[in-house]
């Protein structure tokens, strides 16, 4: 529910009040003596879904934008006529729950901080995320998402497009581009300082850190996360619920990957930064794409009907462009996913092969203790490099031919040559007696 406060310009009193009377809206009017431009101020409650059509009708009646309008939340309205309004405008669809176009625009503006604050908060969140990644601390990484100021620009571009506010669109796109660059650069500088001061081991292997390795080779599931974040972000801002929490989700799709890209650059591994950078870009574009589609589906349109056709054409072009770019990145992520799938199949086939060999009669005294596939560091498309097989056997005995057999059998399932390392561990069994 909303409470609308509207100033009444001189000569428009009867026009405004007649509109409210025709729609069955309860209102209160007070006289205004501070300015000759206004004769009074009217206050009236409205259901959320009624704010936009009522304000548009008042605007169409010739009320200039100079007559300011204030829309605030109303906790409770006790009125039979108000209940009739709710029955008229709230029909259970998406449009019934969304806020008005005017409130949406104001909300998007409020979520975007001033440029200096935006840059500072982005740098801080990137630095905190980088520290959390190097420490392999999920809690710290999550903390970096909370302070990231990304939800406003991420959703502002979509809002600006559907309501035909090109200034908002350009500003939001500029903020997003600068935010990604600033986050990666800040993460790289901080990681370089940390490494040069030996705060972390200088020979740290990035693939050995769980929080980092999972973002060096992202897969198609990352795309689902970004699209979900975009839809959830738009739904939250359009309905005025849980915006802060969804902002964390959007930051989760952008800040940690940007931190990983910066770390890879600081470690002198630009090829390792490719996967993380692609993840940042595809997530950013997916959030914008989901936002555009969701806002248009929710029924948001430009204020002027004369610009509706032009806005629809511009929207289609931007959606088509985003879809094409996202699909290109999706192919890249699909390649990583397929490489991971192939590696998983190889690991399973190689393990099965080892167990089949050990099940033979001549190796009945031996048993498989551990099996490990070591991947190479050719991010983002990693391949098996070495297989380590740990076998338990009787004390003082070994089977030299076993290593050759395992090497041959395992490489039958590999696309390239894979080294096979066989380790023997003496196993002594004692009877119960």
Automatic annotation (TrEMBL):
Pfam families from the UniProt entry: DUF389 (PF04087)
Spans traversing the lipid bilayer: 115-135, 141-163, 175-200, 220-238, 245-267, 273-298, 319-341
InterPro entries linked to this entry: DUF389
Keyword Membrane applies: yes
Origin: domain of life: Archaea
Keywords, ordered alphabetically: Membrane, Transmembrane, Transmembrane helix
NCBIfam families the UniProt entry points to: TIGR00341 family protein
PANTHER family linked to this entry: AT15442P-RELATED
Protein name as it appears in the record: TIGR00341 family protein
């Amino acid at each position: 529910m909303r409470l609308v406060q509207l100033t009444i310009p001189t000569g428009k009193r009867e026009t405004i009040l007649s509109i409210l009377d025709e729609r069955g809206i309860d209102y209160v009017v007070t006289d205004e003596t501070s300015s000759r431009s206004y004769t009074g101020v009217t206050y009236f409650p409205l259901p959320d879904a009624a704010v936009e059509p009522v304000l548009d009708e008042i605007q169409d009646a010739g009320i200039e934008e100079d007559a300011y309008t204030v829309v605030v939340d109303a906790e409770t309205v006790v009125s039979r006529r108000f209940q009739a309004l709710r029955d008229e405008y709230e029909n259970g669809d998406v449009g019934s729950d969304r806020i008005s176009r005017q409130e949406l625009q104001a909300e998007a503006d409020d979520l975007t901080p001033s440029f200096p604050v935006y840059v500072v908060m982005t740098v801080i969140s990137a630095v905190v995320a980088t520290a959390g990644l190097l420490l392999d601390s999920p809690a710290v990484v999550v903390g970096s998402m909370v302070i990231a100021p990304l939800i406003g620009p991420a959703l502002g571009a979509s809002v600006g497009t559907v309501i035909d506010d090109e200034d908002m669109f350009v500003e939001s796109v500029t903020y997003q581009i600068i935010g990604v660059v600033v986050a990666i650069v800040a993460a790289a500088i901080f990681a370089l300082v940390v490494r040069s001061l030996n705060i972390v081991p200088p020979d740290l292997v990035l693939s050995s850190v769980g929080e980092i390795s999972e973002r060096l080779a992202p897969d198609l599931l990352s795309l689902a996360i970004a699209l979900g974040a975009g839809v959830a972000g738009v739904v939250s801002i359009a309905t005025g619920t849980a915006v802060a929490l969804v902002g964390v989700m959007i930051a989760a799709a952008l800040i940690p990957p940007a931190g990983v890209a910066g770390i890879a650059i600081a470690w002198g591994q630009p090829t390792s930064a490719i996967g993380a950078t692609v993840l940042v870009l595809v997530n950013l574009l997916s959030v914008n794409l989901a936002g555009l589609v969701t806002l248009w589906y929710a029924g948001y349109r430009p204020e002027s009907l004369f610009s509706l056709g032009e806005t629809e054409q511009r929207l289609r072009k931007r959606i088509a462009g985003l879809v094409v770019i996202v699909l290109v990145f999706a192919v890249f992520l699909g390649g990583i996913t397929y490489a991971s799938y192939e590696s998983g199949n190889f690991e399973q086939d190689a393990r099965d092969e080892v167990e089949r060999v050990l099940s033979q009669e001549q190796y009945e005294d031996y048993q498989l203790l551990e099996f490990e596939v070591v991947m190479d560091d050719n991010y983002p498309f990693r391949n098996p490099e070495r297989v380590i097989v740990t076998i338990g056997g009787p004390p003082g005995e070994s089977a030299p031919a076993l290593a050759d057999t395992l090497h041959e059998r395992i490489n039958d399932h590999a696309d390239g040559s894979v080294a096979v390392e066989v380790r023997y561990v003496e196993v002594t069994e004692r009877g119960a007696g």
